[in-house]
Amino acid sequence: MNWALANxxxxxxxxxxxxxxxxxxxxxxxxxxxxxxWFAYAANRSPRRPMRQLSGGVLSIGSILYTIPSLPLLVxxxxxxxxxxxxxxxxxxxxxxxxxxxxVRSVADALRSVPPMVLDSATACGYSRTQRALTVTxxxxxxxxxxxxxxxxxxxxxxxxxxxxxxxxxxxxLFTNGYNRDFTTEIATGIVLTVIVALVFDAIIVASGRLxxxxxxxxxxxxxx
Amino acid sequence: xxxxxxxxxxxxxxxxxxxxxxxxVPSHATVVLVGSSGSGKTTLLRSINRMVxxxxxxxxxxxxxxxTQNPVExxxxxxxxMQHAGLLxxxxxxxxxATVLRLxxxxxxxxxxxxxEVLGTVGLDSSLYTKYPSQLSGGQRQRVGVARGLANDPNIxxxxxxxxxxxxxxxxxxxxxxxRLQRELEKTTVFVTHDIEEAFALGDQVVILKKGGxxxxxxxxxxxxxxxxxxxxxxxxxxxxxxxxxxxxxxxGQRIVVDEYGRPAGVxx
Lengths: 225, 269
Hints:
Radius of gyration of chain A: 21 Å
Shape of chain A: elongated
CATH class of chain A: Mainly Alpha
CATH architecture of chain A: Orthogonal Bundle
Radius of gyration of chain B: 20 Å
Distance between the termini of chain A: 53 Å
Largest interface: A-B, 27 and 27 residues
CATH architecture of chain B: 3-Layer(aba) Sandwich
Number of helices of chain B: 9
Strand content of chain A: under 5%
Structural class of chain B: alpha/beta
Helix content of chain A: over 70%
Structural class of chain A: mainly alpha
Shape of chain B: globular
Number of helices of chain A: 10
CATH superfamily of chain B: P-loop containing nucleotide triphosphate hydrolases
CATH topology of chain B: Rossmann fold
Helix content of chain B: 25-40%
Largest sheet of chain B: 6 strands, mixed
Distance between the termini of chain B: 39 Å
CATH class of chain B: Alpha Beta
Oligomer: heterodimer
Order of helices and strands of chain B: EEEHEEHEHHHEHEHEEHHEEE
Strand order of the largest sheet of chain B: 6-7-8-3-9-10
Number of strands of chain A: 0
Mean pLDDT of chain A: 89
Number of domains of chain B: 1
Low-confidence stretches of chain A: none
């Protein structure tokens, strides 16, 4: 505790680094997964077989990306993309790829979970395709997407720590440094702060879900149809 | 007036749902399409608002071919009520009803006022207006569905087995309500059901369909009961099972109506 207080400035700086890098990765991953997942969902509903195969292909790419081991990826990326070693950019890219890989399938699943009857009824009411997509399909897929966003958020916050191994500063630096110095307090502080960041992110996601989708809790309570 | 001219529909997978179907639905009348599953009744209903595109023939609304109209605009001008109501789970009851009005560009305030009015017409308690559909009972949801169909004050109302998923008591209640609304509002209504009792209760004209959309008989309920066209109709309306051939019996000085098997069906007043 004394150590943590004495090194307050360092901890604040590392926490801040950790927060913004993981936030960027989560948001970028989601922003990329949404259109790609939507394409996979739409292609899967196409009457044409090649389109459905393409849909399956896109989703498999997502799964394959996720199986790339993280440490080698962090080592390869800089030379692959011509980025300087120690660059924050390469870890942002790596974690965005993982976030994307998890999200893309669940975006497609979320869209598929919207009851066809509701979509049908929206069409019958006179929603145009775009109106239906934005004001019916997207919000109704929200709860499932939110669930996977929570998984992505936690996994990104914890994965980011290994970025410290390549020299990028964040809460993971407390592990590497603490390990080198055989200093348990520093490691423990790193763990506690990482967990706190993950919990705060989760709380923000859950709260914004409640704010944006007040109906979803009612629906669950009411048991639907 | 809605007119079907030799309408046929073959789906992409080769299934033929309907062939050479002809029908005139007069303005302000209720026509019920009744048949078992696979009779093409829903296909016919949905081809009126272009949810299904017929592969042959034409459908005209007041002498205008629906195929020449923008499908989205067309659907906004026609009320549609479906099984399970099909309400949007993420919108409150009143917003569900206001949907079509808002899509037509009516300002929010006016749309909500009109929605409250039409919810009153279908007899929904005003305390439920701000609930979500999942918080309502099946019968209440169905009333909201009917209100949504009527919100825009369309000339035409399409109803696809709207009362199929509620229990018999609520169904009877909704049917009575429907008859009242029909008297008051006089919409041109096409109603689809597999329940012949419902068809006879609601229809000015009843169209009995066989497999593949073949018309077995068209007529008023009286005409169909008095003069069934063939054995299929006889069996479909229950004349064969003896439930509709009633006779009067005297029992303990009371005159009771019994069916063919002697089961009491009611009293004569």
